[in-house]
Amino acid sequence: MSRYMRWVMPLVDGALVFVSFIGGYYMRYQLQLLRVVDEANYAPFGPFIPYMLLFAAWIYFSLRGAGLYEQRRGRSWTEEMYSIVNATAGATVVTMAVSFFAQPLVFSRGLLLEAAALAIVLLGAARLVQRQVDSQLRARGVGVERVLIVGAGEIGRSVIQQIVGRPDLGYQAVGFVDDDPEAVKGDLGRVRALGGVDALAHLLVGLPVDLVVVTLPWQDYPKILKVVNWCTQRQIAVRVVPDLFQLSLSQVQVETLGGVPMLSIGHKRMMPLGTRLTKRALDLVVSVLALPVFLLIVAVVGLAIRLESPGPVFFTQERVGEGGRRFRVYKFRSMVADAETRRAELERYNEATGPLFKMRADPRITRVGRWMRRFSIDELPQMINVLRGEMSWIGPRPGLPEEVEQYEHWQRQRLEAPPGITGLWQVSGRSDVAFEEMCLMDIYYIENWSLGLDLQILVRTVPRALLGSGAY
User: Fold this and answer.
1) Which of 1, 325, 400, 465 could form a disulfide with 143 if both were Cys (CB 3.0 to 4.6 A apart)?
2) By the 8 A CB rule, do 339 and 268 touch?
3) Does 320 lie in the same domain as 379?
């Protein structure tokens, strides 16, 4: 992947810049978009070649200086576009300046502006294609770095949370080690507990690991040094994350004083007021747009439910929402009317992890209910909860009171935001995601909420619901 970024992308960018310049010439002298060209001012392409080379060279060195040909995980497309626009604008100004001093017989500012606009579009589109290709390759295990985490405390879970919540970064957490017996007594979803820190020396021999991330407390400096030495001896990359006196990462903010970095430490609300207002506005807009479709579905599905089995169309159940507040959630009834009373006899068949209960071949589910669950139609009445302000379209899954009572301390962070109909974990695997991993994704979503993230999850939810992937 790094070789691809270093050698292939510059060649692709160079070719696209040449295409842009040729396209600018075609638009200027053939299509004559901005202004009609007099026959006396018509010029061949040859005199523009030196300026095209200057233009391309400036863009290349600008993008290289901005680090676009280095593999930096987590860099957004917006950041890349800023660098592309900046490089193209600089190339345009420099090329115009050179033409001013050179006073060539043939030159066209219109051609240069059209070439610059085309270059921005093509270079930006190339980055989108590159991201899609990288995503497909990483889904097949190509270019994915296998990460082992040393330390499973607050910071260790935050690192795992980032890896699980951002698969596009290209990391796969293969496991963690910790000397705390409470930390290693169980896996975190698919991230395995591999024993104590002293086991790391043997794990690095038999386990394929590309990167070791150390998140031990600062008091364990001797252990940290020992881990670094083990990794260095085996030529395995190692990164150390300071835990900042065991504070949550959400409590640490970086500020500067005249260029001097400072760490501001204090409590940080996961979702401040401005965020909540924006999120609430999005919920109301989506609800209003979905209301006509919802009413039609209620009529059709309601009739199907009543025809198949006796009982109400809607099923209500007490759930725990933001801040531990309880409310009643609405769903289409997908089970027989006495399903709740029969749950105890099915507990031994539970297929879910943690405090959840799920069963693929649950005998309580009706035929209509199984169809509804496959396409997530049974969740749609929760739009009533959204309109009442008890839920959001996107957020953590609202748990049952008896489930929430079994939460560990760190898992209760998922109660710091309104629960949602869909969420990050649903579009990342839905029912196939373990409870601990679900919590990590929910906490990642809360700490990194943005309007763009909500829209992305909504868009990804639609095809998963239509294809019925991962639900039971």
Assistant:
1) 1
2) no
3) yes
Question: Domain total for the chain?
Answer: 3
Give the range among 138-142, 322-326, 415-419, 447-451 with minimum mean pLDDT: 138-142
Distance (Å, whole) CA 16 – CA 13 = 5
- Do 6 and 38 belong to one domain? yes
CA 220 to chain centre: 32
In a domain, 472, yes or no: no
Sequence-separated (6 or more) residues with CB below 8 Å from residue 87: 58, 59, 62, 63, 66
377 phi and psi angles, rounded to 5 deg: -70, -30
pLDDT digits (tens, 9 = 90+) for 411-431: 888 898 899 999 988 887 555
Supply the range of the domain harboring residue 248: 145-265
Residues 6+ apart with CB under 8 A from 9: 68, 69, 126, 130
Judge if pTM exceeds 0.70: no
Residues 414 and 360 in one domain: yes
Pick the last residue of a domain from 139, 157, 181. 139
431 and 470 in contact (C-beta within 8 Å)? yes
Q: Decide which of 109, 139, 169 is a domain's last residue.
A: 139
Domain check: are 94 and 161 in the same one?
no
Q: Please tell me whether residues 358 and 296 are part of one structural domain.
A: yes
End-to-end CA distance of the chain: 37
Cβ atoms of 354 and 322 within 8 Å: the answer is no
Specify the pLDDT at position 134.
79
| Tens digits of residue pLDDT in 155-199 | 888 888 888 887 777 888 889 999 887 766 777 877 888 888 888
Contacts of 465 (CB under 8 A, 6+ apart): 375, 376
Clarify whether residues 293 and 416 are in a common domain: yes
pLDDT one-digit tens code per residue, 76-93? 888 899 999 999 999 999
Given a cut of 70, is residue 471 above it in pLDDT?
no
- 455 pLDDT band (50/70/90 cuts)? confident
User: Burial code of 426-445, b = ≥16 C-beta within 10 A, e = fewer?
Assistant: bbbbbbebbbbbbbbbbbbb
